[in-house]
Amino acid sequence: MQPLPEERFEQLVGEALDEVPDELFAQFDNVVVLVEDRHEDEPDLLGIYEGIPLTERDEYAGAMPDVIRIFRLALCDVCEDEDHLVDEIYVTVVHEFAHHLGIDDDRLHELGWA
Fold first, then answer.
1. Quick one: which of 22, 23, 2, 25 has its CA closest to 72?
2. For residue 114, what pLDDT is reported?
3. What is the CATH topology of the domain spanning 6-111?
């Protein structure tokens, strides 16, 4: 599909974040979500989590926030229309937040989120 304007895409990411169940969202700690066009080294990557998962935090005081990056152009490339894009954004957001919670790709595959 044609890439959505940045403002509309960011709105859809915000709506996806609003859809994350409250009990799950309450576990997020010191993490920001950013929208970017593409990953510099892996242009087909839909999203990435950069940080220290909650399960690995021992001495974490004063650390910079973890970052979840959602890649607008890559997601638009794999979607047929805006409805499909809405679904893919949600799956990508949940997938990356799962990494923040310490869930690896193997487990995400088992759960159907990879």
1. 2
2. 64
3. Zincin-like (3.30.2010)
